[in-house]
Amino acid sequence: MELTTAEITAWIGSFLWPFMRISGMLFAAPVFGAAYTPTRVRVFVAVVLTVMIAPQLGPMPVIDPTSPEAFLVALHQILIGVAMGFVIQLVFSTVILGGQVMALQMGLGFASMVDPVTGTQVPMVSQFWVLVATLLFVVMDGHLMIVQVVMESFRGIPIGPTGFDRSAWWTLASQGAHIFAGGVLIAIPVVASVLVVNLAFGIMTRASPQLNIFAVGFPITMTVGFSVMILTLPTFEERLVDLVAHAFETVRSLFGPQAG
């Protein structure tokens, strides 16, 4: 049995190019790309997914792995994977922003620690919401939806030396507005409640200037904030579902036009 150079190159490319896109997506996506997930686990999952997905993609373009074209193909595959994972990761950035707004309004902006999910230092309120969002994301099979969308991406943008067009990059840049809008929507109940409390304190201070409002204001503000958080916890699932659905719609729009 003899193998030609073209056959060996095609066999390597049929595994290498999908692996780069899948690994780039896993390193940027939530759950898989979390700081507490070991790198070896991410690589192992990427290899397993590549072995399962690659046979369904059909023949790959024959590209010499040592050529400049191969470097361009590899760069595009990594960028496509990272971009898809980045859009989904923005859901958790939105939750973190909402938690930060709540913490600042409640006077807990100084109470922060390193979040094990994102690896960044965030307020404790944000960490609570991120943990809840992570559990809900797994319960709603978000990790399986990530695998599904990366499979769809190979049909929308086949392996090749081209990647996203200009409109796709503009779509990625415009997602910053959704972070702030979604974060404010998550934090609105607590912000509105604390605002009412602060207005009441202002009226009390004007009516009785000798009252030490700072002695009672801080614990009351925290109590009201935590109470509203508990009361609005059931509605957080609906908000998270909307954010996740929008994220996956955005990911599909990145490679949707190319599919037609």
Short structural summary:
The protein has 7 helices and 2 strands; from the N terminus they run αααββαααα. It is an all-alpha fold and 260 residues long.
Largest sheet: 2 strands, antiparallel
Low-confidence stretches: none
Please tally the helical runs, counting DSSP H or I stretches of 4 or more residues. Answer: 7
Oligomer: single chain
The SSE order reads: HHHEEHHHH
Q: What percent of residues are in strands?
A: under 5%
Strand order of the largest sheet: 1-2
Helical content (DSSP H or I, runs of 4+): over 70%
Shape field: elongated
Note the topology:
Elements: H1 5-28, H2 39-53, H3 68-106, E1 112-114, E2 121-123, H4 124-139, H5 142-156, H6 166-207, H7 213-259
Antiparallel strand pairs: 1-2
Key terms:
260 residues; mainly alpha; two-stranded antiparallel sheet; 7 helices; elongated
Please give a structural write-up.
- The chain has one domain.
- Strands 1-2 form a two-stranded antiparallel ribbon.
- The protein has 260 residues and is mainly alpha-helical.
- A hairpin with a 6-residue loop joins strand 1 (112-114) and strand 2.
- The two termini are 41 Å apart.
- It has 7 helices and 2 strands; from the N terminus they run αααββαααα.
